[in-house]
Amino acid sequence: MNPNPFAWSFRAQFLTGALACIALLAYALFEQFQMHIEPCPKCIFQRVAFIAMGIFFIVGGLHAPRASGRRIYAILVAIAAAVGAVVAVRHLIVQFTPHDPLMEGCGPGLNYLLDAFPIAEAIKKAFMASGDCGEISWTFLGLTMPGWTLICFVLLGGGALWAGFRRRADALPARRS
Q: Cytoplasmic face: residue ranges (predicted)?
């Protein structure tokens, strides 16, 4: 196999994207259950975005469709990545404006919200800041967890678009000498 991931087949690129999503979700679970860093509702929504991306990556990689299908899978992954990126940016805003009364924290946990309110109201309340999302309990190289998830959303979404929209050697007409 070519060591350059930009030259890999669509299937290899998408299955690698799926593995990346699985690894990110596994790390989030490790942080939650081994390091005892409880996720806030915004963290949960970011996980949901990675789950959606992982599903689209796996299905696209296993299906290995022709050009139009590759584009559809790439767009689906990119949409999930964009939603996750928006949540990550909102989370970063909450973390870095902790003195603004309208932006503090995240509110009660997602399980409580889903038990206490209809789903539409629970989702609305989860996005309203009023709990512990403003707390920074983890950093790596100076970036908080939502900062790293934002980078991952951008890279994985961009990689999916690259894989889905790039011209492939097998799709090009044969050259005449």
A: 1-13, 66-71, 167-177
Show Cβ contacts of residue 50 under 8 Å, excluding neighbours closer than 6 positions: 21, 24, 25, 28, 84, 149, 152
| Domain locations along the chain | 9-167
CA 45 vs CA 8, 93, 126, 153: distances in Å: 31, 16, 9, 13
Decide if pLDDT at 2 tops 80. Answer: no
Mean pLDDT of 72-77: 95
Q: Are 76 and 106 contacting, i.e. CB atoms less than 8 angstroms apart? A: no
Residues 6 or more apart whose Cβ sits within 8 Å of residue 130 = 104, 105, 106, 107
Q: Tell me the C-alpha distance between 54 and 42, whole Å.
A: 18
Taken in order 67, 162, 84, 56, the sign of the CA dihedral is positive
Q: How many helices (H) and strands (E) does the chain have?
A: 6, 2
| The domain made up of 9-167 is a member of CATH 1.20.1550.10 | yes
pLDDT attached to residue 110: 62
Q: Can you point out the beta strands (E) in the chain?
A: 139-140, 143-144
